[in-house]
Every structure is written in structure tokens, then in C-alpha cells.
Amino acid sequence: MPSKPSKNLETFPNPQAVRDYTIRVRVPEFTCLCPKTGQPDFAEITLEYVPEELCIELKSLKMYVWSYRNEGAFHEAVVNQILDDLVSCVEPRFMRVTAEFNVRGGIYTTVIAEHRAKGWSIPSPVALP
Hints:
By secondary structure, the protein is an alpha+beta fold. It has a domain at 28-116: GTP cyclohydrolase I, C-terminal domain/NADPH-dependent 7-cyano-7-deazaguanine reductase, N-terminal domain (GTP Cyclohydrolase I, domain 2, 2-Layer Sandwich). Helix content is 19%, strand content 38%. It has 2 helices and 6 strands; from the N terminus they run ββββααββ. A hairpin with a 2-residue loop joins strand 5 (94-104) and strand 6.
């Protein structure tokens, strides 16, 4: 049976929940539709997060991203919706969604949305000599 787009995000237990570490996922082929013209918008989405108890299963993320292909959405709205859906799914310590949209009408758009869990702060980076 062929794969189909889906808003159903799946998770798995974080194998190192005691440690802060970053998961970075690049989605170079995101598409949605312009809500004004119906023409396709193309973007590269980068998802960065510090997981708490759960991680996002990547195949379900792929199907989730695919589900936007035939939906009309302003860039700002779609990036914030993706962030809200992912945060709701895995409740991370930190999450950032960056979408770099290809040129449309001579204009490039980059939208960045972030979430920080209450009480979580960025660990100090290690400076090596």
C-alpha cells in the first residue's frame, strides 16, 4: 500500500532523557499553496529541538510535512502551526522551526518560530582552548 499524507505524528522514547542534546532535521522539499493565488510555495524547513521524554519518528514527520502540499497557508501561519503541532506531540525542552521559502515575486521569506519549556534554560557552551 503506498504512503499517504497524514497529520498523525508518532513518537518514540528519548534514549538519553537525562542529557540535553540537539536533534536537527532538514526538510528540503516542503511545499504548500499560496492562499492568494493557489500556486505552490517551496521551502526548506529546519527543525531543531532538545527532546524531553519523546522524540519525533521521522517517517511520520515526512507524512506530516507532505500533508501541507495541497493546503493554502501564509508562510507565517504554516511555520507557527508546524511548531504548535510538534510541541504538542513531544513537549520538548526547546524547539525551533525555521522555514526558508524560495523566491516569490522577487522576495525571499524566512520565518523562525521557537518554543522553550517553562524552567528550561540554554546550557552554557563549552569553550575549549
